[in-house]
Amino acid sequence: MVTEASVNEQWLQFLREAGASVEDGTVRSFQGDIGLDHARSGSFICDLSAASLLAFTGPDAETFLHAQLSSDVKSLGEDRAQLSTYNTPKGRILATLLLWRTDGGFLAQLPTSIAAGVLKRLSMFILRSRVKASDASERFIRLGVGGPAAREVLTAAGIATPEEALAVTRVPLHAGAMQPELVLALPGERFELLCPDFDSARAVWSAVRGRGAHPAGTAPWQWLAVQSGIAEIGPETQDRFVPQMLNLEQAGAVSFTKGCYPGQEIVARTQYRGEIKRRTRLAHLDAIVAPLPGQDIVDARAAAQAIGSLVAVAPAPEGGYDVLACLHLELAAGAELRLGAADGPRLRLVELPRAFTAAV
Hints:
The protein has nine helices and 19 strands. By secondary structure, it is an alpha+beta fold. The radius of gyration is 20 Å and the shape is globular.
């Protein structure tokens, strides 16, 4: 009998046998191909098990999360997912979360690199609330299917897909069903599939591959996420940005009508007093060596002063890297943007997706 704790390792071994290169629990490539071309012109399937899931269950789970996160958790329906942030009392983001309802509570997805710290901090505020917070990363095997042909491929494989971003399709399961239990539509032509066990994940993987999706590492998934304009917070970028700096209020991650939550006063003041001097822009970086989130961006003509920093990075299909950069708008206007120093790699700004253009 395979125990719950061994499911992910069994799954990674299956992927290794299929040609995957796995480093530190993350699939980097298949037979040396990271799969970027398929993100731009076809479809790919990848493993998402490297991200973490936190579970919040119990009668007070909704009230607790509503009081801790920036989004309107009480308004979250069964057929929707929600972007949210967990902030310091000064309004700075400690975590960006993808949140949805599950039986008896909620699941929140976030980078594994910060998951344990966020879980510990949130647990400190449960106090007498009837809430249990736990790591539920082993509960599902999570697959990502992305690219312009992703919906077509999933439909051909018999997997129903939500019609719009951040919508959820729940699949009624019966004994022997080889289907994902949940399908999330994410910004950037991406679908996340949550499979309840190894057998269903293997069946879904085979069915989707059989319809033309190419196996890939995480790079094409990361590239589509960057292209969507939505950045995740990692250890290098914690406690540096209020949500508006990352355009997250435009993505529905912030409610300005709900009650208090950590940092609410600062976030509201930033919104209503017009103090948003920094915004996140999409850019292409001509670099050979992979840049890191948190690195400074300067104007080559006045390089002593940083005018922004990298928030998210992904290798680009045409070479170099596509990045999300938080920039001081006034100082960046007309600047010759470089990474780190006056002679550093050049950044070229690219138009953000329509959802983010209104206030940028």
